[in-house]
Amino acid sequence: MNDGDLAQLVGLRHKSFIVRIKQGGELQTHRGIVRFDDIIGKPWGSRVRSHLGNPFYVLQPALGDLLKELPRNTQILYPKDIGFILIQMGIGEGQVVLEAGTGSGSLTSAMAFAVGNSGKVITYEAREEMQKLARKNISRLGLEDRVEFKLRELTAEQGFDEEGVDALFLDLPNPYDYIHHARSALKLGGFFGSILPTANQVSRLLLALRQFDFAFVDVCEVLLRYYKPEPERFRPVDRMVAHTGFLIFARPVLLENTNDSIDDLEEGGEEDIED
Amino acid sequence: MNDGDLAQLVGLRHKSFIVRIKQGGELQTHRGIVRFDDIIGKPWGSRVRSHLGNPFYVLQPALGDLLKELPRNTQILYPKDIGFILIQMGIGEGQVVLEAGTGSGSLTSAMAFAVGNSGKVITYEAREEMQKLARKNISRLGLEDRVEFKLRELTAEQGFDEEGVDALFLDLPNPYDYIHHARSALKLGGFFGSILPTANQVSRLLLALRQFDFAFVDVCEVLLRYYKPEPERFRPVDRMVAHTGFLIFARPVLLENTNDSIDDLEEGGEEDIED
Amino acid sequence: MNDGDLAQLVGLRHKSFIVRIKQGGELQTHRGIVRFDDIIGKPWGSRVRSHLGNPFYVLQPALGDLLKELPRNTQILYPKDIGFILIQMGIGEGQVVLEAGTGSGSLTSAMAFAVGNSGKVITYEAREEMQKLARKNISRLGLEDRVEFKLRELTAEQGFDEEGVDALFLDLPNPYDYIHHARSALKLGGFFGSILPTANQVSRLLLALRQFDFAFVDVCEVLLRYYKPEPERFRPVDRMVAHTGFLIFARPVLLENTNDSIDDLEEGGEEDIED
Amino acid sequence: MNDGDLAQLVGLRHKSFIVRIKQGGELQTHRGIVRFDDIIGKPWGSRVRSHLGNPFYVLQPALGDLLKELPRNTQILYPKDIGFILIQMGIGEGQVVLEAGTGSGSLTSAMAFAVGNSGKVITYEAREEMQKLARKNISRLGLEDRVEFKLRELTAEQGFDEEGVDALFLDLPNPYDYIHHARSALKLGGFFGSILPTANQVSRLLLALRQFDFAFVDVCEVLLRYYKPEPERFRPVDRMVAHTGFLIFARPVLLENTNDSIDDLEEGGEEDIED
Question: Which Pfam family, an example, fits this chain (chains A, B, C, D) (predicted)?
Answer without folding.
Answer: TrmI-like_N
